[in-house]
Amino acid sequence: MAEFTKCSNEKVNKWLEEQIAMCQPESVVWIDGSESQLEALRAEAVSTGELIKLNEEKLPGCYYHRTAENDVARVEDRTFICTPTEEEAGPINNWMEPSQMYDKLKALYTGAMKGRTMYIIPYSMGPVGSPFSKIGIELTDSIYVVLNMNIMTRIGQEVMDVLGTDGDFVKCLHAKKDVNPEERYIVHFPQDNAIMSVNSAYGGNVLLGKKCFALRIASYLGKQEGWMAEHMLILGLENPQGEVKYIAAAFPSACGKTNLAMLIPPEYLQEKGYKVWTVGDDIAWLRINPEDGKLYAINPEAGFFGVAPGTSEKTNFNALESTKKNTIFTNVALNNDDLTVWWEGLDKNPPKNCTNWLGEKVDGTTYEGNLAHPNSRFTAPAINCPCISSEFENPQGVPISAIVFGGRRAKTAPLVYQARDWEHGVFVGATMASETTAAAAGAVGVVRRDPMAMKPFVGYNMADYFGHWLEMGKKLGDNAPAIFHVNWFRKDDEGNFMWPGFGDNMRVLLWILDRVSGKADAHDSAIGLLPTASDIDTTGLGISAEELDALLSVDKEVWKEDVENIKEYFAQFGDRLPADIKKQLEILDKNLND
Ligand SMILES: Nc1nc2c(ncn2[C@@H]2O[C@H](COP(=O)(O)OP(=O)(O)OP(=O)(O)O)[C@@H](O)[C@H]2O)c(=O)[nH]1
Ligand SMILES: O=C([O-])CC(=O)C(=O)O
Ligand SMILES: [Mn+2]
Fold first, then answer.
1. Which end of the chain is more exposed for a tag (fewer CB within 10 A), N or C?
2. CA 158 to CA 174: how far, in whole Å?
3. With 0-12 CB in 10 A as exposed, 13-18 as middle and 19+ as buried, what is 23?
């Protein structure tokens, strides 16, 4: 068995011994987080071709990587929640009895790291040492994973110092193996605080601090411990008086979280003094502060794992700026002449001498297909972001004034509406639906129900998760943030987006905050509280009153169809579905038929 240096925590040592015995790596290396160690790993990855060093003048500290053609997105049908009983995982998660799954995985991991190095990455989700942070240790045989985890989380010896001799940690094991999709598994054992990933090298499947820990395991812990782990961006909106209010928003993958989190207000609002500050772009951990009883959020991550295509100076200047140094690009196109990167939507100049995401040398100016994969990504340090919030490292988090749900709905959902109260808001979240995107393997553009944007990420029974939301509302009482629903993706009959989106979404955020502070009116409708069209500021937008009315319209017939779909969806939860959710469905049903 490969030698390894023991640490002062016996639980860690015991676990390491078992994993090393099973995976049989040739050598074992602790990641201490030092720049010299990371630099040596970058050089090694470049020497083997795992990474390509990009143009040092144009993209200092940046690297390029491609994953296998069959390994470019999360794989939901290979993702398992292995609770002791199937009931606990619930009807929308894949489940297998834990000991059976451990046996299956053991066969796959045995000898999986032969001839390779196992890296031990201690990492903290949340600022190191914050009372809200949690520690994981990921074992991996991929330098790419080490370097990405270094950007996405806080890693190294300082984390081991906080863990101490007796601290608990989430056990994360990743073996890249041979990326065989038939034997790919992303498995969570919530009761054991353990995650096992094998036969993939794609980010969402292998950066185990992110969706696996910070959402699936953390949502389970949150239910036990009375807090929430959510698929939410966090932004601060500063008004001309310099006051900042914070909004948390849950949208499914590739539905605009990173974009909204880094929004640049339209010019006329900038001139008035409005600003947006980014706290997080993907995940929020929310807790009730015992001192003031309000809901506070931290971003447990340290970087952005963002969708590259569609990111441009125009659509998301701040995200693009964030990728200008110390960033890893995955599955985008490479410009072979000057070693820079390109993706669809960056600009109108695809590189002529280009390597596409499949690794083929092509003429990018005439190539027919996508040069970058639609789910190609950048991994960028959050501190690169020009609008990173001064509260980004605040261990207490930021107070949340409004929660926003949203998805891609060509019809059905209006631009924005408000829930009547917390219970109704939980129902609005629970009945979210969205068209599928390239972020997960499978068909794109199919409407599916995605409660709170957590369908792929909830670590226990979804019905109990609704119950937990309701419970949190009871605890928050009058301090509960207002809840809204938005839809930037409504389409006209020709299939064009009706709302300009991006920076102009600020106009909707302003209505939301005006509602929170009691400055704006709303009128009740079958589905909730709708803005009066004149309350959405359309200055300089070039959108007519009729167009805005259409964006805010609620077609009862379309909604009635949706209700039938909701009923079917809820039926799978049987008696576990909370009574308050059933009651809200009856109210909606009645409102639509009145
Ligand atoms: N039409 C329209 N498209 C948008 C808007 N905001 C984002 N998009 C597009 O939606 C896609 C995904 O946006 P992101 O902000 O990366 O989505 P995300 O929710 O962060 O995705 P994940 O990182 O997968 O969780 C990109 O192609 C964007 O250009 C908008 O307001 N309107
Ligand atoms: O986890 C990933 O692969 C990327 C991501 O943010 C998502 O899919 O929501
Ligand atoms: Mn994102």
1. C
2. 22
3. buried
pLDDT reading at 131 higher than 90:
no
Q: Is 505 annotated as a binding residue?
A: yes
Q: How would residue 129 be classed by pLDDT, with cut points 50, 70 and 90?
A: confident
SS3 state at 492: coil
Ligand whose nearest atom lies closest to the CA of 203: 2
**Superfamily for the 10-30+78-225 domain:** Phosphoenolpyruvate Carboxykinase, domain 1 (3.40.449.10)
Average pLDDT in the 160-176 region?
97
Summarize pLDDT for 372-410 with one digit per residue, the tens.
999 999 999 999 999 999 999 999 999 999 999 999 999
174 vs 122: CA distance, rounded Å: 14
> For position 413, what pLDDT does the model report?
95
| Residues identified as active-site | 255
The helix, strand and coil proportions of the chain, stated in percent and rounded to the nearest 5, come to 35, 25, 45
d(CA 38, CA 31): 8
DSSP string, 116-145: SEEEEEEEEESSTT-TT-EEEEEEES-HHH
Superfamily of domain 304-384 in CATH is Phosphoenolpyruvate Carboxykinase, domain 2 (2.170.8.10)
Q: Band the pLDDT of 179: cuts 50, 70, 90.
A: confident
- Per cent of the chain over pLDDT 90 is 97
The three state secondary structure string of 200-259 is CCCHHHHCCHHHHHHHHHHHHHHHHHCCEEECEEEEEEECCCCCEEEEEEECCCCCCHHH
Q: Which atom of ligand 1 is nearest to the CA of 505?
A: 31
Choice from 148, 231, 305, 434 to test ligand 2 binding pocket (greatest atom count within 8 A of CB): 305
Tell me which CATH code domain 229-299+392-593 carries: 3.90.228.20
CB 154 within 8 A of CB 135: no
- Tell me whether the CATH fold assigned to 10-30+78-225 matches the one assigned to 304-384: no
pLDDT-derived band of residue 474, with 50, 70 and 90 as boundaries?
very high
Q: How far apart are CA 281 and CA 248, in angstroms?
A: 10
Question: How far is the C-alpha of 407 from the C-alpha of 559, rounded, in Å?
Answer: 15
Query: Distance between CA atoms of 443 and 161, rounded to whole angstroms?
Result: 45
Would you state the structure tokens that stand for residue 577, as one six-digit string? 């579905």
* Ligand 2: residue whose CA is nearest its atom 7: 253
* Cα 203 to ligand 2 centre (Å): 8
Question: Mind listing the pLDDT tens digit for each residue in 486-522?
Answer: 999 999 999 999 999 999 999 999 999 999 999 999 9
The domains of the chain are located at 10-30+78-225, 229-299+392-593, 304-384
